[in-house]
Amino acid sequence: MSTAIAEAEIHETPAESGVNYLNVTYGIKSWLLTLDHKRIGLLYLGSITLMFFVGGMAAVLMRLHLVEPQGALFEPETYNKMFSTHGIIMVFFFLVPSIPATLGNFLIPLMIGARDVAFPKLNLMSWYLYITGAAFALYATLSGGVDTGWTFYPPYSSLYSHTHVVTVALGVFIAGFSSILTGLNFIVTIHKMRAPGMTWFRLPLFIWAMYATSLIFVLGTPVIAITLFLLGMERILHVGIFDPSVGGDPLLFQHLFWFYSHPAVYIMILPGMGVVSELITAFSRKKIFGYAFVAFSSLSIAIISFIVWGHHMFVTGQSIYAGLVFSVLSFLVAIPSAVKVFNWTATLYKGSISYEAPMLYALGFIGLFTIGGLTGLFLAALATDVHLNGTYFIVAHFHYVMVGGAVMAYMGGLHFWWPKITGRLYPDLWARIAAAIIFIGFNLTFFPQFVLGYLGMPRRYAIYPSEFQVLNVMSSAGASILGIGYIIPLIYFIWSMRYGPPAGPNPWGAKGLEWTTQSPPLTENFETIPIVTEDAYNYPSEGAHV
Amino acid sequence: MSDLATHGAHPQGFAHQFEDIEQQRDAGRLGMWVFLVTEILFFGGMFTSYTIYRALHLESFVQGSHQLIVKFGATNTAVLILSSLTMALAIRAAQTGKKKGQIIFWLILTMILGAAFIGIKLRFEWYRDYTEGLIPGVHWFYNGPHAPGVKMFMCFYFFMTGLHAIHMVVGLGLLTVLVIMTARNKFSAEYYSPLEISGLYWHFVDIVWIFLFPLLYLIGGRY
Q: Mutate which of B34, B50, B140, B158 to disrupt the A interface (most A C-beta within 10 Å)?
């Protein structure tokens, strides 16, 4: 009964006119041919959620397999395909597009006071490129999989593997162009489409983070594209430039691969940092501490990310002097990253903090990213890296950054802007419970892996010595909890789309242009283009506490 | 009418998400420059690999370069530079508000030159390479000196010129669209952005060839 009443109310409430971007047109065609950045963001949201659960399924199966030292489920070959599928799907089809393509697409024009991105048709084309790439990857997975790991190192991938390397590489290649065009679109949009008065230093920090991310999209992705093209040619025609029999060097592939794939790590984490800057300010009702430092630390992370790739190759036979230089440069990344963490913490100081679900994710992010970042320093040091390279320590490290960092921020952002996206509220209690379950499940999954790696358990192995079983079972138990934690939001988000109470334009009382328009917004975002007269995060309580 | 005038009298081709035609023009131009940066990185991976292997296997690369016929490469260089000139003249004609016939004339001349480039490449170079067994992985029976290294050089040759040729074909497609748009009176002295940014692309593809020609054809002090 109560839902029926709620529904009746909803039909009247959405905004003044009742028209918004969701109900302005109906039908499958109005979605598949839409040029509205908000609808394209939702198309991405649907497709990457699917990929997330496919990749997550592979992870859960791997963890179940590793409950027993001899392996509980698969042949070793199948296990190899499992971790390759997990890596490829999660990296190229979930983490890279996650925040930029969904929240970025939805929010950038809203936050800078524009009607749309600069090139809406290009934006739609990006999504089609993404699903084409994803279709290739899924087809390859279903028809037998690939066993090279997400890194595709030759000569194994070019000469020896009997799996669908070319199909998957083609999928990644195509999806890469989706990233390139998205980055291009965002750069032009942020440069040229800002509302009157929206100067660079009034931009929300999420925009700075998206700008830095777009730079990496544009500068890094073409290199992985050409590298995968060369790899594909080598595999198909048995000619190529990584083949030692004609004087080629497989290490060159690794250099080219990591020239993209290291910056790609920052493609995944920088948008998360942008989201957290928004959440921390909104839920502590304070201006960000050191706006310019946070903004420029995003850019410096983007720049430094391009000169540290050699730290993935310390034990590959790369020159020791190159290793030394890459080690020193890698330590540099810690500086802008720490600047951000300190500034967020300083923002919390004497703020009026409230603990709604998005804030729980943001606080989780700060703690987990700090652990992930600090353990990265172990790996940037040449001598310790020799011990830790290729072990579960690496796995734990990058999952603390990618899952504890990027996915936490993505979830936080989704919870924060969900009322804007759908115009509906989700059940706050359930959201807080889910956030807690995810935090607990995550730590139980990955903290034991630090210990396992330090004790010497290598990654990517289908079996392990029995003395590692306790820690492996802990990790697998954590993975099941984590899995449940991700399913709960899926359920209440879907529920809220129909039954959630109406959100109103600004349920959090947050600052930012996106909260000044109705929820869900109009197709053209604003009735009239706003004129910006104040800095970002200009919360009224600022000053009262100081 | 005065209302239109204050808004800059939106000409044809104006897209709703922009405030005025000036913003749209700026956005298009910046977009193309950013795209060209991605193209530089795209070709850059290949140029980097070329540089590394050339330093490692210089003699093989010199030997490989001697398999190519310089006069065709040189002719094509001239053809492409000329096509850049005709492209620039087409844009100039639009900018100064010349009749559409003149714009179309320069565009079609550019297309003829572009097609001539691809024709020369196919007929006198790649086809000959095929008959002489110089295509690695497809038709390869070179057994002169430095055979493995020459094979690698020829891989670079085909990857780099092939990728360049694909860009030429895309350029010809763009030019075809531009001819149709011009014929339909889409452009004026106020609005000719598609011409301008396609011109940027066309010049970029030419510049790539300016680098490819000496790196592939002229190494080893042949002249």
A: B34
B59 is a domain residue:
yes
Does B12 map to a domain? no
Looking at every residue in chain B, the average pLDDT score rounds to: 91
Does residue B7 belong to any structural domain of this protein? no
Q: Give the percent of chain B with pLDDT over 90.
A: 79
Shortest Cα distance, chain B CAs vs residue A368, angstroms: 34
CA distance A185 to chain B (A): 7
Number of domains in chain B: 1
Of all residues in chain A, the one with the smallest CA distance to B136 is A239
Contact B159 A117 (CB under 8 A): no
- Mean pLDDT over the full length of chain A: 93
Interface contact B221, partner A, CB < 8 A? no
Which residues 151-190 in chain A show a CB within 8 A of chain B?
A: 180, 184-185, 187-188
Q: Choosing among A185, A190, A241, which should be mutated to test the B contact, i.e. which has the most B CBs within 10 A?
A: A241
Q: What is the domain range of residue B207? A: 19-217
DSSP states of A10-75 as a string? HTT-STTTS--TTTSS-SHHHHHT---HHHHHHHHHHHHHHHHHHHHHHHHHHHHHTTSTT-SS--
Amino acid present at A413: G
- The CB-side HSE value for A336 (13 A sphere, CA atoms) comes to 24
A219 touching B (Cβ < 8 Å) = yes
**Dihedral through CA A428, CA A344, CA A38, CA A508, nearest 10?**
40
Would you state the structure tokens that stand for residue B136, as one six-digit string?
């690695």
Chain B residue nearest residue A181, CA to CA: B35
Residue A497 confidence (pLDDT): 94
Residue of chain A minimizing CA distance to B155 = A240
Surface of B (52-91) touching A: CB under 8 A? 52-53, 56-57, 60
| pTM exceeds 0.90 for this model | yes
B167 within domain boundaries: yes
Q: Strands B134-135 and B139-140: what pairing? A: antiparallel
pLDDT in tens, A465-498: 999 999 999 999 999 999 999 999 999 999 999 9
Contact status of A116 with chain B (Cβ, < 8 Å): yes
pLDDT score of B11: 62
Below-50 pLDDT ranges, chain A: 1-15, 542-546
What is this model's ipTM? Answer: 0.92
CA atoms within a 13 Å half-sphere pointing along the CA-CB vector of A420: 23
Under 8 Å CB-to-CB from A128, ≥6 apart: which residues?
none
**Domains along chain A with CATH numbers:** 2-515 (1.20.210.10)
- The pLDDT assigned to A17 comes to 61
- Indicate which CATH number applies to the domain containing B97: 1.20.120.80
Check A256 against B48: CB less than 8 A apart: yes
Q: Please say whether the beta carbons of A160 and A191 come within 8 A.
A: no
